TrEMBL record:
<keyword id="KW-0378">Hydrolase</keyword>
<dbReference type="InterPro" id="IPR050266">
    <property type="entry name" value="AB_hydrolase_sf"/>
</dbReference>
<feature type="domain" description="AB hydrolase-1">
    <location>
        <begin position="81"/>
        <end position="333"/>
    </location>
</feature>
<dbReference type="GO" id="GO:0016020">
    <property type="term" value="C:membrane"/>
</dbReference>
<dbReference type="Pfam" id="PF12697">
    <property type="entry name" value="Abhydrolase_6"/>
</dbReference>
<dbReference type="InterPro" id="IPR000639">
    <property type="entry name" value="Epox_hydrolase-like"/>
</dbReference>
<dbReference type="InterPro" id="IPR000073">
    <property type="entry name" value="AB_hydrolase_1"/>
</dbReference>
<protein>
    <submittedName>
        <fullName>Alpha/beta hydrolase</fullName>
    </submittedName>
</protein>
<dbReference type="GO" id="GO:0016787">
    <property type="term" value="F:hydrolase activity"/>
</dbReference>
<dbReference type="InterPro" id="IPR029058">
    <property type="entry name" value="AB_hydrolase_fold"/>
</dbReference>
Length: 341
């Protein structure tokens, strides 16, 4: 009964936010002519491998969670790798990593978390516990008992929570430039959901591409697939729904740190850190005097690996937030070496 009283309030909030934010941040006319609108669930957007869907019911909403399940391309080795995407990404950006793993005999499962990619974009109380539980349901539906978990960026926070919740399922853990190595609440002033939503609504094609370019030391056009998809989604008539779910997942990241629990991890762990990464969630709100302390990934990587029993750290120089795109040969070599041990 309590849930039935809460839902109308949430729906009313969305309606109010749409009125406040729906007219701001319009894509300039010249840019709009170059980009075709794209649905918020990426309908018609080609993924590198076939996509399946797991039906879920969460908070009285019927949803579906997209995932790719890629068979080994060669002699199967009987092992499965789970690839978990970051906040501003979806499963498709793992294309080359899937290929590298599949070629070595691994089965590869790549979910789009609820709120991302081809999955539903509901108005929910998002939590890393929920995302981990949803991911476990995919594995259970596929009959997979054991996985190597690889998490990038926000996916590193999901991977950490998944490992802590289901240690019997995880044989090894790989964290690639994970966010959440520090507690953003100590650096970034709090922003209410309404403010986070309006920030999403104010996004433009230019601001989206500029943000994504900041992930890399040296930008190449082939890195722009995720940014282009996001810019096209901004043109969708359903974009306010995506903006709200995105704001809610930003709130999740801010309010649910995992950095105090790394010492509880008990599986072999590899931490891969691009040494030029300076990502901070909510960086624009960080006070100037704290900016030199925020997002210092070389230092954060060394601090984190010291907390995880037996963990190993790989430092990749002159690489930013996404080593598997910016330095794929090095990343895949380190990943496969760790998996083959």
């Amino acid at each position: 009964m309590m849930k039935e009283r809460i839902l109308p309030v949430r729906i009313g909030l969305l309606a109010m936010l749409m009125l406040l934010g729906g007219s701001v941040g319009l894509v300039p006319h010249a840019m709009a002519k170059d980009l075709a609108p794209l649905s918020i669930t990426l309908e018609g957007y080609a993924y590198p491998y076939p996509v399946s869907y797991l039906p879920l019911t969460i908070e009285h909403q019927d949803l579906r969670m997209a995932y790719m399940d890629v068979a080994p391309n060669g002699a199967p080795n009987g092992r499965t790798v789970l690839l978990l995407h970051g906040k501003n990404f979806f499963g498709a950006y793992w294309k080359d990593t899937i290929h590298a793993l599949s070629a070595q005999g691994y089965r590869v499962v790549v979910p789009d978390q609820i709120g991302f990619g081809k999955s539903s974009k509901p108005d929910l109380h998002y939590s890393f516990h929920l995302l981990a539980a949803n991911t476990k349901k995919i594995l259970d539906s596929l009959g997979i008992k054991k996985v190597v978990v690889v998490g990038h960026s926000m996916g590193g926070m999901v991977a950490t929570r998944f490992t802590l919740m289901y240690p019997e399922t995880v044989s090894k853990l790989v964290l690639e430039d994970p966010i959440g190595l520090e507690d953003y609440r100590t650096l970034v002033p709090y922003a209410p959901l309404e403010e986070l939503y309006l920030q999403e609504m104010k996004a433009t094609s230019e601001s989206i591409f500029a943000y994504h370019k900041g992930y890399f030391v040296k930008w190449k056009p082939e890195y722009g697939a995720s940014a282009e998809a996001a810019a096209r989604q901004k043109l969708s008539g359903e974009y306010p729904r995506l903006a709200l779910s995105s704001a809610e997942t930003y709130q999740m990241i801010y309010e649910q740190p995992v950095c105090y629990e790394f010492g509880r991890i008990r599986v072999p762990t590899l931490l891969v850190i691009g040494q030029s990464d300076r990502t901070v969630v909510g960086k624009a709100r960080v006070p100037k005097e704290l900016l030199p302390k925020a997002g210092q990934y070389p230092e954060l990587g060394r601090k984190t690996v010291a907390q995880i029993p037996g963990a190993r750290l790989i430092e990749i120089p002159s690489v930013g937030h996404i080593p598997h795109l910016e330095a794929p040969e090095r990343f895949h070599a380190e990943l496969l070496s760790f998996l083959h041990e």
